[in-house]
Amino acid sequence: EYRTAGLIFLALGLTTLVLYFVTKDKNIFFGIKQGNYIKKMSVGLGVAVGFLVISNVMPGFSILIPSLSLSILSSLRFTVIVFTAPGTEENFFNDVLLNILIHSYGLAFWWANVIKSIVFAGYHILVYGVTLGTLASLTELFGGVIAISGLLFTAFLFSLVVGFVAYKFKDILPGWFAHLSLNLALFSFEFFVATV
Hints:
Blueprint lengths: L1 H21 L14 H21 L16 H31 L4 H23 L2 H9 L1 H26 L3 H23 L1
């Protein structure tokens, strides 16, 4: 199952590269800009903390990390969950896809952000639900409708927020740091629960 996740990340990374290279105007992409690192990382951390707080207050608000097999090295799981997934996803969704929708298709930011967020939510159903089996365990706990709608809603809302932040800063660092912080907190919690 972790090989399939790796293939999904590889396909997303390659798609990002292809879209980047076939786009004529490279200036439309945000990338990571120099300066204001503390401010950008603080905004990202604030987004992550906000989502963690909301997930503990609001029923059905599902924040998940892929349930990669515990048989693979913890360091590999950590690298994939905390660094590879956020980096790959933020580059594709909040830099390449968002900016192509705005600049190549002429969509207003909010429409582009909504479309990108729908794709992001669908992608997370694929990665977490089908490929890695997370939805099966959520379905057993909370019921299928709550599990699927909670995951879709949370992924969609997170994508809207980090898309707005990326657009506002013209930089993907705050969203990447939010994504990394959120996955780090969830990985740490999962690791702690598994070892207790």
